[in-house]
Amino acid sequence: MHRPGTVAAPAKAGASCCLGCHLIRFLFIAAFGVLIAAGTHLLIGLALAFGFRRDALDAGPRTRDWGVWVRSVTNDQIVITARTATQNLGHPGTVGLFWENGYGLVGEVRHVYALDVTRSFEMVTGEKPPVCADPLDDCEQVDLDGYAFPSDPSNRGLEFTEVSFPAPLGELGAWHIDAGPTWAIHVHGWKAERREALRMLPAYDSEEISSLVIDYRCDPGAPLDSTGRHRIGLSEWEDLEAAVEYALGRGASRIILSGFSTGCAVIMAFLERSQLSDEVVGLVFDAPNIIWADVVRANTADLKLPVLGIKASTLMKETGMWLADLMWKIDWEATNYVQRAAQTVQVPTLVFHGTSDKSVPIAVSRQLEAAVPEHVELVETPAAGHVMSWNADPDGYERRLAGFLSRL
Known about the structure:
14 strands; globular; 3 domains
């Protein structure tokens, strides 16, 4: 029986209604927030994907890393400087120095004061480098060049022939150094050039091993891949196969494959796919870029968003990688060559990798060694940057390489 003055039931109904309204409003706001966050990550991921394509996939020559100036130079000493610290400025060992009218070698670090680094110096060709007095903006810049030699095998005292060989997309160029029936085929890295192999060629020649230093698709002057982009080995391996056919057709009795950075990915793809892989008796890798996804993650670890100036989140970067794969068929699984190395790497393999490599983490080579310990010998070079183990210790590098080749 209802008692006079009781109004509890209507009050409960009103409270329930208010609670429902608040819940609906909360859910609406939450859903809107999720949509905004998802849309933001998608847009930023798309921007990162296009940036990734521009910086890592599109074909075209690598631009020089200017940003170094010469303070003073004598016949045997040079002082170089930069606005900010760069790895090559004080890199141990020997580094090439390029400027518009010449080339030289910088050697041991003799003195460091702030960003002014005094090093030994040797002219190789051309006029002396331009000397800069303040302000830097008014001066010609120079480039520290890891290749260490300016033009071709003659820089190393080696006789060579410029040759060409037929490949699936057209003729490709190469240097041939005739030294014996075993041939080493050298495959340069992403947007690099044949000069990348000049540092190592004398070790092969001393062991009476012929060398073929090749171009492949998307190199300057070479045919483009059908996609117009670099494929991290997934199509370039066909050009390496053509080079192996060329060597075998000219009397090569055994094949050694030598790769630098992404050139190692080309070699790994060849080992997975080519009917000629059984001709290979040894591998030499330098800073192998053979887990592409890990390399991309390492190089974007400190990536900041344009304009906003804040670090991109892991989710944003993974979204960008997913979109890049979706749009341009990168195939992150296929370009993880280490996960199949136990089946493909069946011959003695020497791997050089610098402990200070900022482009391809040394962890990649360590994973390769762990995957195939019975075949892989990893040489870790302290303080060396990307593909600069020779630069850090030329004598030690060539000694290890020559010893490995003689054992083959």
